[in-house]
UniProtKB/TrEMBL annotation:
Keywords from the named record: 4Fe-4S, Cytoplasm, Disulfide bond, Iron, Iron-sulfur, Metal-binding, Methyltransferase, rRNA processing, S-adenosyl-L-methionine, Transferase, tRNA processing
Family annotation (Pfam families): Radical_SAM
Official protein name in the record: Probable dual-specificity RNA methyltransferase RlmN
Gene: rlmN
Gene3D superfamilies: 1.10.150.530, Aldolase class I
Length: 383
């Protein structure tokens, strides 16, 4: 077993970006525009461009007075994401994008196209402070939280791509870089903008949004009280505290039982099935007894409102962590199901091009134009 990792919630290394339109409430937008000499209806007009037409450049908003567009751009639309590189795989069905933020921070997102849906995996932090030893992002540490605008603009950019392809973006998963619930207020604000109908948001169903967490139990309970119907995904990775203290160091603060109790509260409040994420690691967490214990604990804590997503580990270069062989994977699934808990193996995409979250960003200084791209290749199961 690996040595325990001491968890440190390090302070972000950089400041937040300039204020963007999506960082503001409707009242704040009206106030900002009023200072530019523009009437309040312009706020709704601009919102329809951004959320309905996926436009982030006021120069294209031709129903704004020509003399106002530059002022609006300067005041409300700073450039948040600059494309560094995009890489396609899976015959063009998967696009991994690397973005540079205005302070030079690197950010990742992944757009995955399926026959029946399109899913965008987005980041909520630049880097991550959770220190999970098998995760490339966790090993790199935390640069800073993302602003609401930086989260939302990942969605707008992907929605614009899908629109240009004659399709639409249908699903959002917060499974990219970072721990979403460690950036709680901005993530919840972003979720509301993602899910509200235009002109307040992109109109994606809350049931098609997944928020992932390593298990910040108090924040899970707080999210339950938001009265939303997004899917909660908990990265559990083992059913016993002894190993989880090592694999997911935040377990030293919130035990598995505390996390499962919070997840049960979320399921009760939302009526939604909780997704349990379990990265299967060779000779570490893939034993028969752990499969049996996982199924038993989940059945007792959540009953039918739980589903296990078994994730074949995608090792990072030089890592000692490796994926379990197929026969162990199949047996693990069989044993969890035998305990009365649904369990499937996650369909992963883009594995040949640094699919692990944070992996390509970690290679950033070696790639073209200062960076190579990466993001999570994890395709969520629709619950």
């Amino acid at each position: 077993m690996a040595e325990p990792v001491t968890l440190q919630f390090s302070a972000p290394k950089r400041g937040m970006p300039p204020t963007h339109f999506t960082d503001l409430s409707v009242e704040e937008r009206i106030e900002r525009l009023g200072k530019l000499g523009l009437p309040k209806f312009r706020a709704d007009q601009i919102a329809r461009h951004y959320y309905g037409r996926f436009e982030a450049d006021p120069s294209t908003m031709t129903d704004l007075p020509a003399e106002a567009r530059e002022k609006v751009a300067k005041e409300l639309f700073p450039t948040l994401l600059t494309s560094v590189r995009s890489i396609e795989t899976d015959a063009g069905d998967t696009t991994k994008s690397l973005w540079r933020l205005n302070d030079g921070t690197l950010l990742e997102s992944v757009l995955m196209r399926y026959s029946e849906r399109s899913t965008l995996c987005i980041s909520s932090q630049a880097g991550c402070g959770m220190a999970c030893p098998f995760c490339a992002t966790g090993q790199a540490g935390l640069d800073r939280n993302l602003s609401t605008g930086e989260i939302v603009d990942q969605v707008r950019a992907a929605a614009a791509v899908m629109q240009a392809e004659g399709s639409r973006l249908s699903n959002i998963v917060f499974m990219g870089m970072g721990e979403p619930l460690a950036n709680y207020k901005r993530v919840v604000s972003a979720v509301r903008q993602i899910t509200q109908p235009s002109p307040a948001g992109f109109g994606i169903s809350q049931r098609n949004v997944t928020v992932s967490t390593v298990g910040l139990a108090p924040a899970i309970r707080k999210l339950a009280d938001e009265d939303m119907s997004v899917t909660l995904a908990v990265s559990l990775h083992t059913p016993d505290d002894e190993l989880r203290d090592t694999l997911v160091p935040v377990n030293n603060r919130f035990s598995i039982q505390e996390v499962l109790d919070a997840a049960s509260y979320y399921a009760e409040k939302s009526g939604r099935r909780v997704s349990i994420e379990y990265a299967l690691i060779r000779d570490i967490n893939d034993q028969d007894w752990r499969a049996d214990l996982l199924g038993k604990r989940l059945r007792e804590a959540l009953g039918p409102l739980v589903h296990v997503n078994l994730i074949p580990l995608n090792p990072t270069p030089g890592s000692k962590w490796d994926a379990s062989p197929k026969y162990r994977q199949h047996e693990f699934v069989r044993r969890v199901i035998a305990q009365g808990v649904t369990c499937t193996v996650r369909d992963t995409k883009g594995q040949e091009i640094a699919a692990a979250c944070g992996q390509l960003a970690a290679e950033g200084t070696d790639g073209a134009d200062g960076a190579e791209s990466s993001a999570s290749s994890e395709a969520p199961a629709d619950n």
